[in-house]
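Researcher: Let's try something more involved. This one mixes different molecule types, so please make sure each is placed in the same coordinate frame as the others.
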Amino acid sequence: MTNEHLLTTLRARFGDDAFTDVEEPHGLLTLTFQRELTLELMHFLKEGELGFTFLTTMCGINYPNNLNRELGMIYHLHNLVTNTRIRLKTFFPVLDPVMPTLTNLWATANWMEREAYDFFGITFTGHPNLIRILNVEDMDYFPMRREYPLEDQTREDKTDSFFGR
Amino acid sequence: MDHLISGPSGPEHTERRVQPAQEPLPLFSAAGPGAPLQLRDELNNELTTLNLGPTHPATHGIFQNILKMDGERIISGVPTIGYIHRAFEKIAEHRPFYQITPLTDRMNYCSSPINNMGWHLTVEKLLGITVPKRAQYMRVIVMELARICDHLICNSILGVDTGAFTGFLYVFQEREKVYEIFEEICGSRLTTNMGRVGGMERDFTPVALDKLRTWVKEFPTVMREFETMFNRNRIFMDRTEGVGPISAERALNYGFTGPNLRAAGVDYDVRVMNPYSSYQDFEFDIPVGTTGDTYDRFMVRQEEIWQSLRIINQALENLPEGPFRADAPHYYLPPKQAVYRNMEALIYHFKIIMGEIEAPVGEVYHSVEGGNGELGFYLISDGGRTPYRLHFRRPCFIYYQAYSEMVVGQSLSDAIVTLSSLNVIAGELDG
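Model: All components are placed in one shared frame. Result:
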């Protein structure tokens, strides 16, 4: 399955302007889609003719300087029969970090979405158990957002003038 | 007689027995904090909440499972993970590329070289570096050695968990020899930090090659002994067959990869599907199971050890002559002698060590077949000196969430065996 075929099929189904920033870095078709399309698009990719039945991974991302597109989710899907991969991105404002859950399509989305919630504060509507997964439960910030520095700035026991702690 | 049964009942004894009123201790409970530990199901059977872990000798790592049990049978399990979370993705955003290799070591620490090579391959893909054939073959050798180590640990520990300690001792001697080979190749054993972006840090020394050739000759004997002990062992088979099964469909839905997926009957192997580092040059088979139970997972790993050995033999036999590194002076450290005598080499050395090398803008997803499945690196570079974002697809993290579904209805001892056969490595689980 070529990337052209993939793109044509997706555009035939969702319209020509549904996807922006179409790229092919290292041969991997990368598309940006509208958040509203998420469930419909994922369902089409998984259950439809394209057969992307395997959710390889998903992760959140934060671009603090992109106004109203500060946060994003990036999905990697894999068609194991034709060995085709596709990367799908969507961006939304940091003040409205809500995505629909994919747990109804893939059981594996459960912990991946919890991870994205834990680190980026993206909430997934319909998720069965959206709580922090790797960090402690009473943490009150989302550490992978760019605004949070690597080291805890409130600590005073680390004063390394060379590496700027 | 009466006083003998009921014990002393004088006023002085009664007084001593009175306990001061106190708050109940906060104990873990499957029904949430504060819920009673003794629960009852709809048939009025008494249920028990069992806190398995986080530091339990049978879990081989730090993860907790709060099990709700009806006698010996598990009704539900709530896993808690993150006990050794070290924020590698955040740290990686602040480090130059070569300093991220030691972070990858500490993910699946049973097969660190695979993680190292996976990371090097990802960066090389971003930078557009082609590694010479010899380095690719060397990488294949160390990756397959690491895979053998990983599978040996998993399978022998599974033996220990089913009550057979001997096999563990037999193969751990072989693992030790592999670690000696690693030591000879790169200087360290467990967390290897092996290789560099652009090749290997040095060629295989004659001692390393010697040790490798000896080991390849000696290992099959021990492996056959190990197989004799387990593969058709009645007790072992009774203990593992039908334990913790998962169907191929569920496994794919749960994102299983690697031996655990292959045990369910899906022949997905990254080495064959998307060959990297010259895997297409070698002839090997992908073993698959049928039922996805503990025995199948064990047998798939057993066979993969033989296949890895086959790859190592082919790579050793056809090890090409030539350089062990790419000609990429911007990214690959110059030889130390050149740093002392050559101005250009000194500048490159300084720039690389101080992390002042800028990577091109781009994004890369690269995956390798790790010990437990598809180990993916998703790297976004904004043209800076560190990754803008680095996401690790850690196979353990992804398939461990199926564990609570797999053990429902099983006995506690079967749950331990299932956990052991899934080969959940805490470092990879928590990232």
